[in-house]
Amino acid sequence: MRFVLPLLSSVLLFLSASFAQPNAATLNGQLWVVNKLGDDVSVIDIQSRTVIATLPTGKGPHELAIDTNLRWAVVTDYVGGNSLSVFNIAERKLERTISLADYPRPHGVLFMPDQKHVAVSSEGSDNAVIVNVESGVITQVIATEAGGSHMVALPASGKVIYTPNMTADNVSVLSVEQGKLLRHIDMPETPEAITVKADNSTLWVGSNKDGWLSVFDTKRDTLKARWKDYTWPYRILYSPDEKTVLVPDLRQNTLDFYNAGTLTRTRRVQLPEDVTPKGLTFHPAGEVLFLSLYNVDQVAVIDVSSGEELFRLPTGDGPDGIGYVPAN
After folding, report:
1. Position 260 pLDDT exceeds 70
2. I want to staple 208 with a disulfide (CB 3.0 to 4.6 A). Which of 13, 190, 284, 309 is the partner?
């Protein structure tokens, strides 16, 4: 950052005021939650703890991405929809539906650095597809050259896309600049959950078949750590400061906390039986986590420092992908 010290101090004070550490009484903003069984999205007001809008998607929605400018919420219509549903956040309405008929079963979705394009994994065609959500135009298609390309992970640069390939048992490393596959990274069977550090140095992958969680050094091309006590490590998420990594296990109903620096597990939280944790996102301050509970149609609001549940929020039918929108 090229700030002189007085300006830097002002910026830090502003950020501190903007994202002061919330508690159960002061927490506000909205959650946008995909309901897989309802074919819709719930918009939840956190302060009143109510659903304030229910917006229809295409068929079989799964994942959701929100741009940093808070203009668009984009949902992948994975099971039978073969499309993207693009929502205007401010107006809480469906802005457009983008057909991905040639690239079916779109699942993972993340915004590219320009906040106008999204990277989407097409499991039905084994491609990563880059789409302009404002124009609806598909601007690039990159073959993963592997089967079952289910999710996407992006470093901050957006120059590389990672896709875990569930039937090929590897991860594709795709160059956006060159528009081609760079290589495959072998993984234990059925890799699904994935995330990458912003600087593109560290890749985390969860494998479903035998319950492995792997941490891979992308610079040295080596395995850094691996754990094998999962049944379905459904998602992996860095905290906003990248000091913590969280992993929910769908079948064990657990939530694991890892120190991202030392690569040690610091806490395992046992959730109530059969709540089925799925999608997760952080409050920008990093001290509160929102975790969708698929079987009970709720979102758990969790204090990150203690691992304790603060309260729950209602959703629609079968919540999964989730995103946070700050209060105006």
Report:
1. yes
2. 190
The predicted-structure confidence for 20-74, as pLDDT tens digits, reads as follows: 556 666 899 999 999 999 999 999 999 999 999 999 999 999 999 999 999 999 9
Return the DSSP state at 233.
B
The SS3 call for residue 98 is strand
For residues 321 and 318, give the distance between their C-alpha atoms in angstroms, rounded to a whole number: 10
Rg (CA), the chain: 19
Amino acid at 77: D
d(CA 213, CA 201): 17
Do you know the residue count of the chain?
328
Residue among 218, 263, 257 nearest 239 (CA): 257
- Residue 87 tokens read as 């929502």
Looking at residue 22, its pLDDT comes to 62
Domains in the chain, please, with CATH? Answer: 57-233 (2.130.10.10)
Beta strands in 187-262 (DSSP E): 191-196, 202-207, 212-217, 222-228, 237-238, 244-249, 254-259
Read off the amino acid at residue 204: W
